[in-house]
UniProtKB/TrEMBL annotation:
Alphabetical keyword list: Membrane, Transmembrane, Transmembrane helix
Residue ranges of the region described as Disordered: 409-459
Segments passing through the bilayer: 26-43, 49-68
Name of protein: Uncharacterized protein
Keyword Membrane found: yes
């Protein structure tokens, strides 16, 4: 059997293919400004003042909206500042949990029932449907199609003595899972993959060890017991636990509602009951395919366990598996958003910073199945100092993937490849040399065109990723972010775009809510 590692190139899309590499909103603003300048000239009868006014308008719009070196324009930065000012004035950056001593205090609590960035999202009421154990979220925020989401806990690929061939097989099997989900017969149109790294809870092991030691009667074993206890004391502060979750995103499409109507008619069920039935069928299929892909044990989480996961993702003091008191109304800890981080907890004892991993930040090099391993499991722990003890780097990595039907993806790849080759030919005719960006873009579109050939079984996808890093103070958070950036560089990620002024909003992209990726013309 070949031991050659399976590779892929993800980072070829390093620039937009629009005119001058500008975004669509900027091009639209330019078109409106040009129309306004023409209107001023015509209404002014071509007089000197009309010409000057039109030119001033065009120059002002160009200067305000031009994006230099992929950085936000002045207008974008100004709009961001105004948006931040408005949020803070309305108190949208603050949320108080009912157990917070400041809850209900008009001077410290804006009075939100739920965190404002959550929007219009709530669990479906499944009482009396026969599917009471399921937990389905319905999201109906403006600007996107209504969708339902379900959370799965996944054991993940077993580690240990595995070679490149084994990891390549696991990678191919997971790719098959995604391809199955992307088929027209599936109502799942996107997934969110989450990896959470937290300090390992040694309490169960310590309790087990104490129970075993209490049964020992031979005094000669005392030195060994004491040595084992000392070993636990040394390793416990640095022990790290890794947990994986998958959130399924099922949009309320016409095909989905047709299936709901069919199920409701056949089983004489209510609309909510039929929706739950269809979502359950899709969830069972996804869980079965994940198991077949070698992802280990897969559990569909109910309300308490899912809410415990959400709470633990935000507040490290809460454990992922302690769900006795977890509920949708109480799983949101208090927080206060700031410029460089958000403070979590009634005493603001935790600080979280969120960053985006843009597709353009991924190096256009061959990446193997373990390309993200340094960021997932290879981040160094904080060694501590005289004031704070050592502790692993608490972090969450979230990847959102939306599927693009094969035919639509082939059309986009063919169009991009044609445009890239035409640009290269034009530059060759002019004898123009660039920095290699044109070749990288052309190579990326050509690879997509070849990968999506009919009969390949492949589908298209759009994706994004975000990371949340948590520390015990601002200084501890700065050190943790530095370690995460170093691990990202080892994973061929050149830059993390930190969500300045918006950490309390961006953190919701790292929660298992199937959010964080806007709809595109290919995925609507």
């Amino acid at each position: 059997m070949s031991t050659e590692s399976r590779t892929a190139i993800l980072g070829g899309e390093i620039a937009r293919r629009s005119w001058l590499g500008l975004s669509r909103p900027v091009l639209l603003i330019w078109a409106l400004a040009l129309s306004g300048a023409v209107a001023i000239y015509v209404l002014g009868g071509g007089q000197t003042w009309a010409i000057i006014a039109a030119l001033v308008l065009l120059v002002a719009v160009f200067a305000a909206t031009m994006e230099w070196h992929d950085k936000p324009s002045w207008a974008a930065r100004r709009a961001h500042s105004l948006r931040t000012w408005g949020r803070r004035r309305r108190g949208e950056h603050i949320y108080r949990n009912p157990c917070d001593p400041a809850f209900g205090d008009p001077e410290r609590d804006p009075g939100w029932a739920f965190p404002p960035p959550l929007g219009n999202i709530a669990p479906l009421s499944l009482g009396g449907t026969g599917l009471d154990d399921m937990w389905i979220l319905r999201c109906a925020n403006p600007g996107e199609r209504v969708y339902f989401s379900v959370l799965l806990a996944v054991e993940g690929v077993a580690d240990g003595l595995r070679g490149d061939a084994a990891y390549a097989a696991s990678s191919a099997a997971f790719g098959t899972f995604l391809a199955q989900m992307a088929r027209a017969s599936s109502h799942v149109r996107g997934v969110q993959l989450l990896h959470r790294s937290v300090p390992h809870d040694m309490t169960p092991h310590i309790h087990w060890a104490q129970t075993r030691v209490a049964r020992l009667a031979d005094a000669r074993l005392t030195p060994a017991v004491e040595s084992y206890g000392a070993l636990i004391d040394v390793t416990a502060p640095m022990a790290e636990e890794h947990r994986s979750f998958v959130a399924l995103r099922i949009p309320q499409t016409e095909a989905f509602m047709n299936e709901v109507a069919r199920v409701a008619h056949i089983k004489n069920a209510t609309t909510i009951g039929a929706i739950a039935q269809v979502v359950r069928d899709e969830t069972e299929r996804a869980a079965r395919l994940l198991v077949l892909a070698g992802m280990g044990r897969v559990d569909v989480l109910g309300e308490r366990r899912a809410c415990a996961v959400i709470r633990a993702f935000l507040d490290p003091d809460s454990k992922l598996d302690r769900h006795r008191d977890a509920g949708w109304d109480t799983c949101w800890p208090s927080y206060v958003g700031g410029r460089d981080s958000m403070a979590i907890g009634p005493d603001r004892e935790w600080r979280t910073r969120v960053g985006y991993l843009r597709p353009q930040a991924i190096e256009p090099v061959p990446l193997g199945p373990l390309w993200l391993a340094p960021l997932l499991t290879g981040v160094e722990a904080d060694p501590g100092d005289d004031d704070i003890p050592p502790m692993p780097t608490i972090r969450t990595l979230s990847v959102r993937i939306d599927f693009v039907p094969a035919q639509r993806a082939r059309t986009a790849a063919r169009g991009d490849s044609t445009a890239d080759h035409a640009r290269r030919a034009k530059e060759v005719r002019r004898g123009k040399l660039d920095d290699g960006s044109t070749e990288v873009l052309a190579g990326a579109s050509e690879r997509r065109r070849q990968d999506l050939m009919p009969g390949s079984g492949h589908h298209g996808a759009v994706y994004t990723a975000s990371v949340a890093v948590t520390g015990r103070s601002e200084d501890d958070l700065d050190r943790a972010c530095l370690r995460v950036v170093e691990a990202a560089n080892e994973s061929a990620i050149t830059e993390i775009d930190w969500a300045t002024d918006q950490h309390d909003v961006a953190v919701f992209t790292t929660l298992p809510l199937a959010r964080g990726l806007a709809a595109t013309p290919h995925t609507r």
